[in-house]
Design a protein that fits this description.
heterodimer; A: mainly alpha; 63% helix; 0% strand; B: alpha/beta; Glutaredoxin; 5 helices; 8 strands; elongated
Chain lengths: 135, 197
């Protein structure tokens, strides 16, 4: 999720800054392409989206996204196309289904659990005890 | 010693250590492909390197996967800038020649490269027995979920992807798969469906 948030903004900035669209329709298509491309992992890069990567394959994958949008496909259909070719790995942000839910739930659960443990221990250490029968 | 605390610490540590240990057994560069077992994506690609008789196809001819149903198709993605492609060139070319009289078709797909560079590379390597085609915009490569080159797909006689091989492929693997997929094959166990570089 964090990765997607980090990559989405520069992706949009890049589109606005370096690819001046000739028409409003082109501009809207580029923005939609960029939004989808920012969620797809570049297969030949390290942790980069196909929107951020200058790699040739990433550019070609962006062209596929653009063409599919032009053909009337929805963002979900386009992502499903890439997942059907590369597997879930291609999504920078894993879908919240099945075991993937653990990726979202576990960090929060660990932080909450850790904070609770610290709170209990601090309280115990700072509370004066009458009997010291611990060995 | 507080045995209760020690036990809790142990119980908390064991799953974490087990998780890390499992992580070390995994190869992060090995990404399972969803394609083996599915219908091979269709393509129609133009020949730029003809190959050699009896496997030669005229330059400019369009090869279509659909026309190759009934044959085992070996689809090898390669490029002249790919060093590992040199390692598999002879096994591929020789195996294609050995299966020339069987229903097996080898096709090279040039990936992100200029046909002129591909033709020069083939000449430098001493020729290629089977034809190679161009893939404009890497559309077919993306359709096959390509990560890089070399990658080889073996498509069965019904047009399903039987096997995806990452990295240079050997004659042994090629023969094993083609023999297991050819009609009236002597049988034997079907090998694993994907492999790593």
């Amino acid at each position: 999720m964090v990765v997607a948030l980090c990559t989405a903004w520069p992706a949009r900035a890049q589109v606005a800054g370096t690819r001046p669209a000739s028409t409003a329709a082109d501009s809207a298509l580029e923005a939609r392409t960029a939004a989808i491309a920012a969620t797809l992992r570049c297969p030949v890069c390290q942790g980069e989206s196909i929107q951020d990567s200058p790699a040739e394959l990433a550019q070609q994958m962006r062209a596929v996204v653009r063409d599919r949008l032009r053909a009337g496909e929805t963002p979900d259909e386009i992502k499903a196309y890439f997942v059907s070719k590369y597997g879930e790995w291609i999504l920078l942000e894993p879908r919240m289904t099945g075991l993937n839910i653990l990726l979202y739930v576990l960090p929060v659960a660990l932080i909450v659990g850790g904070l609770a443990l610290v709170a209990v221990l601090v309280r115990r250490w700072t509370t004066p005890t009458a009997n010291t029968d611990e060995s | 010693m507080n045995w209760r605390r020690a036990t809790i610490a142990m119980l908390a540590a064991v799953p974490l250590i087990a998780l890390f240990a499992f992580g070390f057994t995994r190869n992060p560069s090995e990404i399972p492909s969803p394609l083996p077992g599915r219908d091979a994506p269709a393509w129609a690609l133009t020949v730029f390197a003809p190959g050699e008789p009896p496997l030669a196809r005229p330059v400019g001819d369009t090869l279509r996967l659909h026309d190759l149903l009934g044959k085992v198709v070996v689809l090898n993605f390669w490029a002249s800038w790919c060093l590992a492609c040199r390692d598999e060139h002879v096994p591929l070319s020789e195996t294609a020649r050995q299966y020339a009289d069987r229903p097996a078709q080898f096709i090279g797909v040039l990936y992100n490269d200029r046909p002129a560079a591909g033709t020069r590379w083939i000449a430098d390597m001493g020729g290629q027995s089977y034809p190679s085609v161009v893939d404009p915009g890497a559309r077919t490569a993306i359709d096959y979920g390509l990560y890089g080159v070399p990658e080889t797909f073996i498509v069965d006689t019904k047009g399903r992807i039987a096997y995806k091989h990452l990295g240079p492929i050997s004659e042994r693997v090629l023969r094993q798969w083609i023999d297991s997929l050819l009609p009236r094959a002597a049988g034997g166990d079907t090998p694993r469906r994907d492999s790593v570089r």
